[in-house]
Amino acid sequence: MQTDTKKGLGAAFTNVFTANLSSSLGDGIARTAIPLLAVQVTSDPLLVSGVAALVLLPWLFFAIPAGILIDRIDRRVALGVANTVRTLLAAALFVLTMNGALTIWWIYVIVFLYGTFETVYDGAIRAVVPSIVGKANLPRANSRIEGAELVVQNFLAGPITAMFFGISVLIPLGANVAVFALAVGLAFALPKAASGRQYANAAGEPHVAWYRQYVDGYRFIRSDPMLVKLLLLSTFLGLCGSAATASFVLYLVDYLALPEEWFGVFMLSGAVGGVVASMVTSRLKARFNSGPVMAVSAVVSGLALALIGFVPTLWAAGLGFLISSATITSWNILVMSLRQSVIPGRLLGRVHGTWRTLLWGSMPIGAVIGGFIGRIDLTLPFIVGGLGTAIACVVFFRFLAGLPNPEDIDNGDEAALAGPTDPMVQD
Predict the structure, then answer these.
(1) DSSP code at position 154
(2) Whole-angstrom Cα distance, residue 113 to residue 85?
(3) Rama region for 294: left / alpha / beta (φ>0; ψ in -120 to 50; rest)
(4) What is the pLDDT of residues 124-166, one digit of tens each?
(5) How far apart are CA 318 and CA 53, in angstroms?
(6) Mean per-residue pLDDT, 317-338
(7) Could you give the C-alpha distances from 190 to 76, 142, 269, 288, in angstroms and in order?
(8) Would you give the distance in Å from CA 427 to the centre of its chain?
(9) Rounded CA gap, 301 and 305, in Å?
(10) Which residue from 344, 340, 299 is spatially nearest to 323, judged by alpha carbons?
(11) Residue 320, number of CB atoms within 10 A of its CB
């Protein structure tokens, strides 16, 4: 049962928040360590950008199957199994590095498998939140999750990982194994409301073979013109963003001569922007509504990325990264809240998986494009990707500004969970 609270988000949300916090710490260690490991084994921009591509490529193949799985089983189990596999992958990375056997090809394999099970984890955690938080509080809940992830991954995991890299790479890699293992236990301790089974039961959805549910998410998106346009625009923006940032670590370390041990510290500029955005997005939404905040955020994010390429200095890179991270965080909070309010609870996994298939499935293409452009000049990906983002959002500014608030949308969940109120009334 969903609850709307004015003072707090409830004990169930606290449990979800804590479980996700532990998993986010593991993500932060991995996302800092793996690019640095890649730079140690190769200096080819295309091979480095391949790491970013393979993180996202599984979304093209596995996001829909993962969504079907999430809608068919207890979502707590989905979270636990996904993090169990990621624990084993973290252990494999530790062993390969310790034995001096790590190559770019091993990194590719581990990153691809990691991304495969991230499709399960991400879909499950996004589906859990609206099952325990009311629509009016979704921006607030998503803001807290986004803010906590940024703090843990960047202010804690990023700098500590980069610092220990200079002492022994095995320290952060070993810690990564431990935190993912902790996240497994926390996932299974989540309350029953997080399972998501209440929606399937209330809707009386017939049990059909899993392979017949492949197009359920597509059908739902296609039935809503707003979602169709938003998905296509989001996909283009994702392609531009991944093209701009795929070789960011190489741009900083090789082009701007940033010492490797300062990489994690530099990334704090993005974390600062994201944390500030997570603190103010709900207030901006309350004052200006979701649509206008999303529209302005999208345009500014593109201009900030272009700044990094036009002014190739560390201070400009830091400022551009801060602004782009802030605006992208605001966009992510509001677009996720909008989707969670539109999609019925029983379809969250399938629609989310379909959405991610197109959106994140296109990002490896953007990363490879960015890698090829980066071979010409490492500043060009930021200019091309940033201006592409800004121009597209100016063209679709009116559409974005007119998007509704989550609480103004009725997806039928409340009526389904409440049950029939009058036996004489037929649907």
Answers:
(1) I
(2) 9
(3) alpha
(4) 988 888 888 888 888 988 999 888 887 787 677 777 777 777 7
(5) 23
(6) 95
(7) 7, 18, 33, 35
(8) 38
(9) 6
(10) 299
(11) 26
Write out the DSSP string of 263-290: HHHHTHHHHHHHHHHHHHHHHHHHHH-H
pLDDT at 413: 67
Q: Where are the alpha helices (DSSP H) in 151-196?
A: 158-165, 170-188
Does the structure show a pLDDT above 90 at 85? yes
On whether the CB atoms of residues 252 and 317 are closer than 8 A, the answer is yes
Dist. CA 198–CA 202, nearest whole Å: 6
Please provide the size of the chain in residues.
427
Supply the DSSP symbol for 404.
Answer: P
For 23-80, write each residue's pLDDT tens digit. Answer: 888 888 888 888 888 888 887 777 877 887 787 788 788 888 998 889 888 888 999 9
Amino acid in position 141: A
Residue 374 to residue 240: CA distance in whole angstroms? 14
**Angle CA 263–148–359, to nearest 5:** 75
Query: From residue 90, how far is each of 149, 292, 344, 401, 414 by CA, in Å?
Result: 19, 41, 35, 42, 41
Task: Answer yes or no: are the C-beta atoms of 50 and 38 closer than 8 Å.
Answer: no
Mean pLDDT of 246-255: 88
Per domain, the residue ranges of the chain are: 11-201+212-406
Q: Which helix (H) or strand (E) holds 412?
A: none
Residue 143 amino acid letter: S
DSSP 402: T
C-alpha R_g of the chain = 21
We find that the CATH architecture of domain 11-201+212-406 is Up-down Bundle (1.20)
Residue 4 has what pLDDT? 43
pTM attached to this predicted model:
0.77
Q: How far does CA 275 lie from the centroid of its chain?
A: 15
Q: How many other β-carbons are positioned within 10 Å of the β-carbon of residue 83?
A: 28
208: tokens are 């059909």
